[in-house]
Write a structure and sequence with these properties.
The chain has 669 residues and is an alpha+beta fold. 32% of the residues lie in helices and 22% in strands. β13 and β14 (288-290) form a beta hairpin. The protein binds adenosine-5'-diphosphate and magnesium ion.
Length: 669
């Protein structure tokens, strides 16, 4: 790392100004980022009292020369940036040169550092921004920053801190997620004597996810692998930020290469994992933990029609692109970014995730999946820090009261398993929720059989091991299911290659129709039927505005409509699958969707919602008797869909009770 310089005014003035030290976690974030920028491979974080009493970060990075160590506490002193041009391609996490002086002004700070280029180290003590001591010291390489009594001289700020546990949860979440962004480094977090996280260098992100969250969580995740998409320049779809615009004016015409490659890696959850808030979503852009509405929207669009709108996935996404493509100089805490080609980035992320989801096609099961076998068996359970589901970033996004958070820490042990039980409920209501923060679940085998009972069971004959098919997660096994009958004239019971299936006939048909309509819609040939008499609908003035906005979209979805006098429309034809009796309901439903969707969501979402509501109305209802041929048809058609695991509104379609689980339940395994 180069020597520290004070930024010239014209550069300093272009840096998004503002407070960086909001709470203990923001101190940890700035110090961790400094250590990472310094090339550290071993990072240790110690805190006491949720970081209020003490935060200490020890790294094995490049350290600082004596003069630099002194300069580091001046405002706008940085080794990472020189001129305005550098602001356009920031490759380091820091660049503002403000963190150390800001932290030192609201705490008692001790810096101990030694660069490999000097034989002795430097110790500097500062309290409330005043230098108390600066001396030579015999130190090892690297840097230790100790921050005590945060906000001791700013009582107003101290009052705003939440409980120690909440602050600790913020810190734990932060360190955990930085550890996920850097699988090749050692991270340790201790709160007093309690070690909350300790991960050693891992070869892959997958192994790091396993170290941090345990095998249970890994089972529930889809690995993106590494997906790339090239952007051919120009054009810019989003106006550049002020910084970029000004620089471009100074620099004149672009001499950029003609293509830019975007790359997405990481993990995200299967649709059956549904979280109540965004706290399990972590997005890194070029190694920087950020919160970004555009990317969050891309993520939720990927799950559109797979999970209910009120549910959120778990996601750990790493987007990489040329530093020029993303402006990080938007917000003082560097957690917001602006993409130069926002809609390209949005669609790339949405399409990549959607494609991967479709490729996996998993089914909900009745019990936890078998542990993974291709990973070492050590560290099978989540690290304590991974159970702290709270993040500074998601909280800012949520903007909602973190009600349950304060009670999270004291009881990290066993929570109620939120897995679906072997009970059938009416189809309304959300899909089963799996909780990533819960410890690995144990299959409940009932009371352990006594020796006598075991022998008795044995007398019934062992199930030949080779006859047990390996558990199959994919719904492709649906293709050779034999329907056995219906329960409640609503759920199809079927036997398959691997166990028993229960399929909700309405949502299954809904998924089949949804994909059919969507495909017809994309090919521009939706089957339509003319109405004998046009249907006349009276609209409110809001509905009329919405109608005008989506008239083309309605037409392309198979509805032939036209304005018919004041606030009235005539419907002359409708998609063939829609019954005349449902037509009015569907159209009003679509107008309602348009009203909410058009505010923020994309046309693509609106289109999918229109298709979903057509499919829902046209699908066979529950409480409908089906003969064997119909059930068979339904199962075949479902197996042929791209995504047979949940209905377009995100409800589960099929429940699977594998042979293995059946055997376990009967104590034959
Ligand atoms: P910035 O990170 O934006 O440059 P900071 O105030 O966080 O500003 O740090 C100022 C400078 O101090 C950095 O540019 C870097 O040169 C040096 N520095 C800070 N922390 C470390 C560290 N842990 N190891 C080595 N150098 C550091
Ligand atoms: Mg910094």
């Amino acid at each position: 790392m180069g020597r520290i310089r004070i930024l010239p005014d014209q550069v300093a003035n272009k840096i998004a100004a503002g407070e960086v030290v909001e709470r203990p976690a923001s101190v940890v974030k700035e110090l961790l980022e400094n250590s990472l920028d310094a090339g550290a491979t071993d990072l240790r974080v110690e805190v006491e009292s949720g970081g209020r009493r003490l935060i200490r970060i020890t790294d094995d990075g490049c350290g600082m020369l004596r003069d630099d160590a002194l300069l580091a506490f001046e405002r706008h002193a940085t080794s990472k940036l020189r001129d305005v041009k550098d602001l356009l391609s920031i490759a380091t996490l820091g660049f503002r040169g403000e963190a150390l002086p800001s932290i030192a002004s609201v705490s008692r700070l001790l810096l101990e550092t030694r660069s490999a280029d000097e034989t002795t180290g430097t110790r500097i003590e500062i309290a409330g921004g005043k230098m108390l001591r600066c001396e030579e010291a015999a130190l090892g390489g690297g840097t230790v920053v100790t921050v005590r009594d945060l906000f001791y001289n700013v009582p107003a700020r101290r009052k705003f801190l939440r409980t120690e546990q909440t602050e600790l949860a913020h810190i734990a979440s932060l360190v955990t997620h930085y550890s996920l962004a850097h699988p090749d480094k050692t991270f340790r977090l201790a709160s007093g004597p309690t070690e909350l996280l300790h991960v050693t260098p891992a070869a892959t992100l997958k192994e790091r996810v396993y170290q941090v969250f345990g095998s249970q969580v890994l089972e529930e995740l889809v690995d993106i692998g590494a997906r790339e998409r090239d952007l051919f320049l120009p054009p810019a779809s989003v106006p550049p930020s002020e910084t970029i615009a000004e620089y471009q004016r100074e620099r004149g015409p672009e001499d950029d290469p003609p293509t830019r490659t975007f790359r997405l890696t990481g993990f995200f959850s299967r649709p059956q994992v549904q979280k109540a808030n965004r706290n399990s979503i972590f997005i890194f852009v070029n190694g920087r933990l950020i919160r970004d509405r555009l990317l969050l929207h891309a993520l939720s669009s990927a799950y559109h029609n797979l999970i209910p709108p009120s549910a959120y996935p778990f996601a750990l996404l790493f987007l990489e692109c040329a530093p020029e493509e993303v402006d990080v100089n938007v917000h003082p805490s560097k957690t917001e970014v602006r993409f130069r080609h926002g809609s390209f980035v949005h669609d790339f992320v949405r399409d990549t995730l959607r494609d991967r989801l479709m490729e996996t096609r998993p089914a909900p099961t009745f019990s936890p999946a078998a542990p993974t076998t291709d990973l070492p068996s050590r560290a099978p359970s989540p690290q304590p820090a991974a159970r702290l589901p709270y993040s500074e970033f998601s909280q800012m996004l949520e903007n909602e009261a973190p009600a349950a958070v304060d009670s999270v820490l004291p009881e990290p042990a066993h929570r109620e398993s939120p897995l679906p039980g072997f009970t059938l409920r009416p189809t309304a209501g959300p899909a089963p929720r799996l909780d990533f923060t819960a410890p690995p679940l144990e299959v409940t085998p009932g009371p352990p059989p006594s020796g006598k009972l075991s022998r008795h069971l044995d007398a019934h004959g062992e199930f030949p091991a080779e006859a047990i098919p390996p558990p199959e997660m994919s719904l492709s096994v649906l293709s050779d299911l034999r329907p056995l009958g219906q329960i409640h004239e609503s759920f199809i019971i079927a036997a398959g290659r691997d166990g028993l299936w229960i399929i909700d006939q309405h949502v299954a048909h809904e998924r089949i129709l949804f994909e059919q309509v969507l495909k017809q819609r994309a090919a521009g040939r939706v089957e339509m039927q003319r109405l004998l008499m046009p249907l006349i609908l009276q609209l409110t003035s809001e509905q009329q505005i919405d109608y005008a906005r989506i008239a083309d979209e309605l037409h392309d979805s198979g509805f032939e409509t036209e304005p018919f006098g004041n606030r009235t429309i005539a419907v002359k034809a409708a998609p063939a699958s829609v019954g005349a009796a449902d037509l009015e309901k569907i159209l009003f439903e679509i107008l309602e969707i348009a009203e909410t969707e058009l505010r923020g969501a994309s046309l693509d979402d609106l289109r999918r919602n229109i298709c979903a509501s057509i499919a829902c109305r046209a699908a066979i209802k529950i409480n409908t008797r089906l003969d064997a041929a119909k059930m068979e048809w339904l199962l075949r058609a479902l197996a042929a869909t791209d995504c047979p695991m949940s209905c377009p509104h995100g409800r589960p379609i099929a429940m699977h009770y594998s042979t293995r689980e059946i055997l376990k339940a009967f104590h034959r395994l």
